[in-house]
Amino acid sequence: MKIGELSSVAATPIETIRFYEREGLLPAPARTAGNFRIYEAAHLDRLQMIRYCRSLDMSLDEVRALLSFRDKPAAACGDVNVLLDRHIQHVSTRIEELGLLERQLMDLRRQCGDERTAQDCGILAGMKEAALESSHSPEGVRRPGRDH
Question: 30 near 24, Cβ under 8 Å?
């Protein structure tokens, strides 16, 4: 199948397919005499695995490692368990950070209960105060899920 058909069947944009090829996650397909990419069922299977891993918020390195394990079906899966345990911990940490972010946003929202002018907006005043405090902190501005 050509890349357009693979894109349609896998519900994946063509540019994403090409990106996965450049990243080495999806092997380069054979080409026709006219230089068109020709994908096999194995490409579709691998692409679906990649997309599922990405839907679980796995990094490209995690996906690459899982694909490597999958490419060695006779190998033990202990390292797969370790990878997934680490990812679960990462997700748990992000959930905690997002909970903190939600509380910060809700605190800000409570600072402005009615419509005012921008100069009297409690949300903007709260953001300015928090930014000033964080600029004096050794950790700087903390953005859950983005600083690591």
Answer: no
